[in-house]
Amino acid sequence: MNTAATHAQWSDPLIITVAPNGAYKQPSDHPALPITPQTLAATARACRDAGAAMIHMHIRDAQGRHSLDVDGYREAQRVVREAVGTQMVIQITSEAAGVYQALEQIAMVEALRPEAVSIGLREIDRPEVGEEGLARFFAGLVRERAMVQVILYDVADLRRWQALRARGVVPEAPWFLLFVLGRYSAGQTSRPQDLLPFLAAHDGGEPWAVCAFGAAENSCVAAAAVFGGHARVGFENNLLTKDGLTAPDNAALVRQAADAALALGRPLATADDIRQRFTPR
Questions:
Q1: Would you say 92 and 81 are in contact if contact means Cβ atoms under 8 Å apart?
Q2: Contact criterion met (CB below 8 Å) for 22 and 267
Q3: How far is CA 246 from CA 31, 61, 241, 250, in A?
């Protein structure tokens, strides 16, 4: 056993990201689901206090529908930043959610120039973009010093990412991977075992986190923490606590993840830890 590597894994501060709303859920699904800048700000404060250092933020239009509107994002970022200062990294989503096409997603990110962004690889790796377009986009993100999390839904996505990296389509940078568990399973449910194929295929070159659909979210987070990964939790993927009850709010799910990490001896990352690690130099 490589004791130095094992020590590094266990001393690595665990990053908890809260994903409080997503593209589809509504307050009718849960009264504490935030969809306005003001409710996002209140949720961010509560989740920061519970242990989250980053918020993965979706915004909505006036009818409550998923939106990638640049001005809407700027306003939401302003209100959330006033609420939490620099104590949380604000990560915006570029998710298509069946509404946007790849070129629109890329244009939004380039116009907004966010501090941090999540990008679904399979959503932008499209014929209309091509590898030349991917190379320009990723190079621009590095140039703008954006912290980028690349969303991978299965091992095929991970293999594709590795191939793009190996061929130099994606430049060297501190990329952060997200392994999604349960997105395309029956009933969108996940199990800790779903992490194993990702770990077997991962070459160890980039830090990673999990997000897990369904009631086993906390068990999947604990598994990720055991294997040196990080976690995204929240109402976007799951509304239940580990004992199967409806969570009162997003902060309760963050608190569970923090408790699991601390029980395993993993300290919690701060927003400054994230910036130091993932901001391109």
A1: no
A2: no
A3: 11, 27, 6, 11
Q: Is the pTM higher than 0.85?
A: yes
Tens digit of each residue's pLDDT (9 = 90 or more) over 141-177: 999 999 999 999 999 999 999 999 999 999 999 999 9
End-to-end CA distance of the chain: 33
Q: What is the DSSP letter of 240?
A: B
DSSP state of 171: P
Instruction: Please name every residue paired with 246 in a beta bridge, in sequence order, or none if there are none.
Output: 240
Residue environment code for 57-94, b if the CB has 16+ CB neighbours within 10 A, otherwise e: bbbbeeeeebbbebeebeebbebbeebbeeebbbbbbb
Q: For helices 102-112 and 70-84, what crossing angle results, to 10°? A: 50
Cβ(219)–Cβ(231) below 8 Å: no
Q: Rounded to 5 degrees, what are φ and ψ at 87? A: -80, -5
Measured CA distances, 247 to 40, 44, 113, 210 (Å): 17, 16, 34, 20
Hey, what amino acid is at 39?
T
DSSP state of 74: H
- If we measure between CA atoms, which residue out of 209, 198, 195 comes closest to residue 274? 209
